[in-house]
Amino acid sequence: MLTIIKNTDIYAPEHLGTQDILIANDKIVKIAENIDAHGLEAEIVDGANTICIPGIIDRHVHITGGGGEGGFSTSTPEVNMSTLLKNGITTVVGLLGTNDISRSVKSLLAKAKSLNEEGMTAYILTGGYGYPSATLTGDVRDDIMFISEILGLKLAFEDHRASHITKEELTRLASYVRVSSMLSRKPGFIHLHMGSGKHFYNMLYDIVGENGLPITLFNPTHVNRTVPLLEASAEFCRRGGSVDITSNIGISPKDSVLSAKKALLFLLQNGSSIDNITISSDGNGSMPLFDEDGRLSGMGVAGFEPTMDTLKALVLEENMDFAEALKPFTLNPAKALGIYPARGAVREGCFADMVLLDKELNIKDVYANGQAFIKEYEVIRKGTFE
């Protein structure tokens, strides 16, 4: 199957200008100013007045649902594939949340395989909030080394719902993740759900300093949860670490200092490199509210729209260079997950994961692995039971 997208303005994420893109099956095989379709049985797509960007890579999604802090009835449902694609997400990383007891790595892997069968790209993390970590095989090392979809480990840290892992336990766990990742040619990381604890990254600094483990082994997420945590995260980045901002935090009021837009700008203004920052949604997870006594006072569900809203705000409101603004959503997570250069860019040889935007940066068309799922703002291909 051949598709030619004509005259689209490409950000790869670097700006390539207006060119044509030839897709063969699931790959981009040619990018040029004028690709002649004469003699080819190809679908021709008019890309005039569109901007082509890589598909968004969301590294933190509760694909089997999350939540449960208010009882069984407060668990959120599984995600639908069309929901992801409507928001420009072509690659997703699924993980467990607070409830890693009745939800399992096994069901997480099954959901990822389902999404892959239906045409997009899905990976998962083993573990969850608790320690010892929830696993598929019974051993974190075996999960990472032998299961191709498992890219790393999830763990809650500095949170009242965490297992309050000791420094010795975390050191051993980090070594397990590092070695099993090296043996399986994976990047190797512990995705740390950061809570509102006051010790921030002190334990991580001790582990790195005492044991020679790289700081890049730890990837804190939800770093815009509180202002003190965001400030501590700027120091973490200055020391060479990478952090993940959550787009669903600080979305009300609009200009909250903790919004993903403001958090990114704060990190950049305080010495962080944009190459060390990713932005994810925490989509389909619960958004619990606790009162001063730690009692649950409210519950919401994290959506996926805030991620694209953040990109638009950076470009249209903050006048950030579009190529730079794209990095935390595309190139940076691809590199962090070890799936670059196959994904995270619009280049010859890459998988054809692309989003066509109109001039207002609204999502017009979405391609995942060369297949069109969204055309002219409408879903044309859904999951099996949607």
Radius of gyration of CA atoms, rounded to a whole number: 20 Å
What ranges have pLDDT less than 50 throughout 5 or more consecutive residues?
Answer: none
**So how many helices?**
10
Alpha carbon gap, first and last residue: 25 Å
Structure class: alpha/beta
One letter per element, helices H and strands E, the order comes to: EEEEEEHEHEHEHEHEHEHEEEHHHEEEE
Amount of helix: 25-40%
- CA-based shape: globular
Give the DSSP E fraction (strand runs of 2 or more residues): 25-35%
Q: Report the count of strand segments.
A: 19
Largest sheet: 9 strands, mixed
Mean pLDDT: 95
Structure description:
With 386 residues, this protein is α/β, with parallel strands linked by helices. Helix content is 26%, strand content 28%. It has helices at 81-86, 105-117, 140-146, 167-183, 202-211, 227-238, 260-269, 305-316, 322-326, 331-337, and strands at residues 2-11, 15-24, 27-32, 42-46, 51-54, 56-61, 89-94, 121-127, 150-157, 190-194, 218-221, 243-246, 277-280, 286-290, 296-301, 354-357, 363-368, 371-375, 378-379. Strands 1, 2, 3, 4, 5, 16, 17, 18 and 19 form a 9-stranded mixed β-sheet that branches. The protein has a 6-stranded parallel β-sheet with strand order 6-7-8-9-10-11, with helices on both faces. A two-stranded parallel sheet has the order 12-13. A hairpin with a 2-residue loop joins strand 17 and strand 18. Helix 3 (140-146) packs parallel to helix 4. The longest helix has 17 residues, at 167-183. The protein starts with a strand and ends in a 7-residue tail after the last strand. 50% of the residues are buried. The mean pLDDT is 95.
